[in-house]
Design a protein that fits this description.
The structure holds two protein chains of two kinds. Chain A is built from 14 helices and three strands. Chain A has one domain (45-360). The relative contact order of chain A is 0.17. In chain A, strand 1 (153-158) and strand 2 form a beta hairpin. The longest helix of chain A is centred in the N-terminal third of the chain and has 27 residues, at 101-127. By secondary structure, chain A is mainly alpha-helical. Chain B is α/β, with parallel strands linked by helices. Chain B contains eleven helices and 17 strands. Chain B has a seven-stranded mixed beta sheet, with helices on both faces. A five-stranded parallel beta sheet of chain B has the order 2-1-3-4-7. Chain B has a three-stranded antiparallel beta sheet with strand order 13-14-15, with helices on one face. In chain B, strand 1, helix 2 and strand 2 (96-103) form a beta-alpha-beta unit. In chain B, helix 3 runs parallel beside helix 4. Mean pLDDT of chain B is 82; it is low at 1-55. Classes of the chains: A mainly alpha, B alpha/beta. The interface between A and B is large, with 91 and 70 residues.
């Protein structure tokens, strides 16, 4: 907080405005929610949604880096979340006796992020060398494979160490042992150590990583490779390496988000991370605007909260939810609405030249 | 405001949508909330304040289950049966109840938010969840907030135990009305071991991405090994290939299995029966309580189910007054559909709660926590007679004790089998 005037005003300059908006939004929301919670004004329903919302935001920010900035379609973000979640649960379950909650949560998220990144790297090596929609196809399959693998995986831990079996559960644990992964039952009896504060910090870390990457040399290369592959190749950018960077970071963020999510519930089934979840996260990204992180945060919050806030409508809620989705899609693509918003922006900015938009990467389609 | 330039149209639109949505959400409770709760949701924050308003002494029963999605048939059955039981109890006079049932779409995440919604509504007693995984997710919350819960059909051990692997660390205030999965597996294996006239070579076809099915199978296998039952084939399927079982059946047939054990729900079981009959394979089929409902399945030729054995706590064809009345009233309520064991368990849950409430002298102005203490004490000491069993008792862990009945399907109806 000891920034000089120049430093402060720089926050609102064209270059930094997008970032400032994102950080301000997250921090303000956090302060407001914490105050409401402390004063007992936050309903139980709302409280229970705080952590999952932060998880989805991080996964969506990661996916936006991949889809919006790097321009590669990824249909398996839930697969990376799944890897992160179950890795995180295993790490946390193993360390439950020796490490206190918050460091354990952080270790679990780091482990989840690393393993998810590793998987991202492995599938990225062959696929990102290709031109076209191959990443979409491969990640689609990847999500299904991960779901099947974890559904058939048994990992137990007792005083004699780890026991692992596949397809059939042959783990024989001594009393006091714990099944960390239990096939289709997934993980049960997980200690719930995720907190909203750590979740918000994770969101901020994700934003720092993504923004710093976007505005670095590598980030420019990623966008150049997206916008014109041939030109980018001609000036000497290694296309597959730049796309790999975005993809691996995206997978890592999903892994960290997954670990956070997994440690927020006492039980997690592998079926949770199916194709629908991948698509859901993609919907958050697309409705928030490709390449637009602030938009992603807002759309994730709205779309996660909406079906829950509509609970009072009982039988009609999924209907209303679908209608709202359609309305948002129509509105964001409606020429008339767009013109109005543009006019509004122009009048508000007092005729300042609107050139800053480009800084934020690709706008909503 | 200083950042309009870069804010894309999408953001602006999202903002507008967000405001619109929250308006809808805020306005909705006032318009559509049922008569009893006139206070805004936020005020019901702490569970103690949930019962503060004098709504004519109504005890609020909450519950969640899949009302939408793939498992919706179970959630809707439970909801309808619980509503029926509440209406019947209220009609008798005495302590009045109000039921509020939330949708959890068989997803632990949604179950946790449904739990939040129920708490905001002021739930004092709960039917927990219909399915197991969501039940395991909310059980620790019931313990933390000290609200009594009894699940009609969440049969996994994880619903009642913190540490399901060792069956220790029971939550203490979460009870089950159905058998636990392991119990069913053990009971099936015991039955088959004691009735070798049915056959000696067992093939199992189970759904390996399903808690319920693989939970029963694991225990069945362990018990079968102990009792010397020979399992000649283990076939699996999952959601993505639950329509063709010819591979599994051919394999079972070639291994010479004369018993096919099906610890699965009746939907895939009906396909297995149909396909087995098409290929001329006629072993003895043996199912568990998930098989209940096969006789009422639309488009299924019930003659194929002739001679199928199953363990079930409830059969809709029983002739005792309680069952006959229940089936009749349930059919009137939902339009002809014959109730399955989920419905019967839910109906029993509400009656068991009512019995405990009356016995403990619980009144509606008590807090959820006080009610929890009073009812828990009753549940661990009382005996309950209902649709799904006579002389039902509960252990302090929340596990139910009632005996599964083996029945065989003869002439399109369940017939009890002598043990």
């Amino acid at each position: 907080m000891t920034k000089d005037k120049k430093g402060l005003s720089a926050l609102f300059s064209a270059k930094y405005r997008g970032r400032t908006a994102s950080y301000t939004l997250v921090i303000l929301a956090y302060i407001i929610l914490e105050v409401m919670r402390a004063s007992g004004n936050l309903s139980s329903l709302f409280t229970s949604l705080l952590v999952p919302v932060t998880c989805y935001i991080v996964a969506a920010i990661g996916l936006n880096l991949n889809v919006g900035i790097s321009g590669e379609l990824n249909l398996g973000q839930a697969g990376f979340m799944s890897i992160g979640a179950f890795t995180g649960i295993c790490v946390s379950g193993r360390l439950a006796a020796s490490v206190p909650a918050v460091p354990r949560l952080i270790l679990a998220m780091i482990a989840g992020a690393l393993l998810a990144s590793l998987f991202g790297f492995i599938i990225g090596v062959p696929v990102l060398k290709l031109q076209g929609d191959y990443l979409a196809i491969v990640t689609l399959a990847f999500g299904q494979i991960i779901k099947s693998l974890i559904t058939n995986m048994y990992l137990g831990f007792d005083e004699n160490g780890f026991q692992f079996s596949f397809v059939e559960n042959t783990c024989k644990l001594v009393p006091g042992g714990k099944m960390l992964l239990n096939g289709p039952m997934g993980a049960t009896g997980t200690q719930r150590i995720a907190t909203f504060t750590v979740g918000v910090i994770l969101v901020l870390v994700a934003l720092v990583i993504v923004y710093n990457l976007m505005y670095s040399k590598s980030g420019r290369a990623i966008m150049a490779a997206r916008d014109n592959r041939i030109a980018a190749e001609l000036i000497g950018i290694n296309i597959s390496a730049t796309k790999m960077l975005a993809f691996v970071v995206s997978a890592g963020l999903a892994g960290a988000a997954g670990a956070m999510y997994g440690l927020n519930y006492s039980t997690l089934v592998p079926n949770k991370y199916d194709f629908n979840t991948s698509i859901l996260i993609l919907v958050y990204v697309v409705l928030g605007g490709l390449g637009n992180m602030t938009g992603t945060i807002i759309s994730t919050v709205v779309l996660v909260l909406l079906p829950e806030l509509l609970r009072s409508l009982q039988d009609y809620r999924m209907l209303i939810y679908a209608i709202v989705l359609i309305v948002i899609m129509l509105l964001t693509n409606n020429e008339w609405v767009r013109t109005r918003i543009k006019l509004l922006q122009k009048s508000l900015s007092g005729g300042r030249k609107a050139s800053a938009g480009k800084e934020d990467g690709k706008e909503a389609a | 405001m200083k950042n309009q330039n870069f804010m894309s149209k999408a953001v602006a639109a999202m903002m507008a949508a967000a405001m619109g949505a929250s308006l809808v959400a805020c306005a909705a409770p006032a318009a559509s909330a049922p008569a009893a709760s006139s206070e805004p949701a936020v005020e019901a924050q702490a569970e103690e304040s949930g019962s503060s308003e004098a709504a004519g002494g109504v005890i609020k029963i909450g519950g969640s289950g899949p009302l939408t999605g793939g498992a919706a048939v179970y959630g809707n059955a439970v909801k309808a049966a619980a509503e029926l039981a509440v209406a019947e109890i209220n009609a008798k006079g005495g302590q009045q109840y109000e039921l509020h049932f939330e949708d959890d779409a068989h997803d632990p995440e949604k179950a946790v938010s449904a739990y939040g919604a129920l708490k905001d509504w002021g739930m004092q007693v709960s039917l927990a969840t219909v399915t197991s995984a969501p039940g395991a997710a909310v059980a620790p919350m019931y313990q933390e907030d000290h609200i009594f819960a009894i699940t009609p059909s969440g049969s996994s051990l994880a619903v009642i135990y913190q540490d399901p692997d060792n069956a220790t660390g029971a939550y203490g205030n979460v009870f089950q009305m159905c058998f636990t999965d392991p119990n069913q597996g053990v009971a099936s294996a015991d039955y088959l071991a004691a009735h070798t006239d049915l056959g000696s070579k067992v093939a199992v076809i189970y759904k390996n991405d399903d808690n319920y099915s693989s939970g029963i199978f694991t225990k069945f296998k362990a018990e079968a090994e102990e009792k010397g039952l020979e399992i000649v084939y283990e076939g699996t399927f999952d959601d993505s290939n639950a329509s063709d079982f010819s591979v599994q059946l051919t394999k079972a047939q070639s291994e010479g299995a004369d018993i096919v054990y099906l610890p699965i729900y009746y939907d895939p079981a009906s396909l297995i029966l149909t396909q087995a009959s098409q290929m001329g394979y006629a072993p003895t089929f043996f199912g568990v309580d998930g098989m209940d409902g096969i006789l009422t399945l639309e488009g299924f030729d019930t003659s194929l189910a002739e001679g199928v054995y199953l363990l079930t706590p409830f059969s809709a064809d029983a002739t005792d007054d309680l069952t006959v009345n229940f089936v009749k009233n349930y059919q009137d309520k939902v339009g002809g559909e014959i109730p399955n064991q989920f419905a019967a368990d839910a109906y029993d849950c509400v009656y068991a709660i009512a019995q405990a409430v009356d016995a403990a002298g619980v009144t509606a102005d008590m807090s959820a926590s006080e009610i929890c203490d009073a009812i828990t004490a009753q549940f661990t000491s009382m005996t309950f007679n209902g649709l799904t069993g006579e002389n039902v008792t509960w252990a302090e862990t929340g596990e139910v004790s009632k005996s599964p009945k083996a029945v065989v399907i003869k002439d399109g109806a369940y017939v009890g089998v002598e043990d």
